[in-house]
Amino acid sequence: MTSSAPSSDVMGAELRPLFATPLLVTEIEGAEAINAALRPVILERRERLPSARRSNDGGWQSDLDFETWGGAGGARIMAAARTLADGLTQVQTEAGLVALPPVWTMNAWANVNGPGDANMPHHHPAAFWSGVYWLDAGEPAEPGGACGGELEFMDPRGVLPSFYAPTLRYAISGCLSAGRSEFFTPRTGTMVLFPAWLVHSVRRYTGAGVRISVAFNLSI
Predict the structure, then answer these.
(1) Is 60 strand, coil or helix?
(2) What are the start-end ranges of the H helices in the chain?
(3) CA pair distance 88, 99, nearest whole angstrom
(4) The whole model's pTM is what?
(5) Which of 34, 107, 110, 117 could form a disulfide with 64 if both were Cys (CB 3.0 to 4.6 A apart)?
(6) pLDDT tens for residues 140-168?
């Protein structure tokens, strides 16, 4: 017997999803102009300066000083990141939660991945939010194909939910990947924001040409 769609409506039970992990996805206004201005700047810098070595397995990463050389386009990306974080952050006070976002300290860096490049699993210490903006997600190597290079998020609970019985699944929407990973396929002009402690990686890029992105951290 198979089920077409899992449901939590059993015996009138109330579903309370606990320990949710936020992933925010948004399209950036004016992305086409931002991308056209930043692409040659980032590629020129890659040709001139060696790569920083952090999570990258191949590919190129700049130092954490993108805001100092990203120009007007870079400033718009950073402003969008701050605005998104402001709308999703509150401060705990004696009176309760207050929508009074802190003054963020940011660092950011550019990434260029070519065919075969990836980023190893990692998190971003000393930050509250982290995110990435793709100014060029790349093109498939073959018509109708995929580019690979998915952004992979590991379940922060580790393998425990699937360790005991790997074939069993929690038949509840949003819980089917418990103990496994979730994936996001990069799109040009798109920004994602997620908790800095969430372990993530970038699968190997298989597209044509290069994929260019800007990653960032928001700290207090």
Answers:
(1) strand
(2) 31-48, 66-69, 71-86, 160-163
(3) 9
(4) 0.91
(5) 107
(6) 999 889 999 999 999 998 877 677 887 88
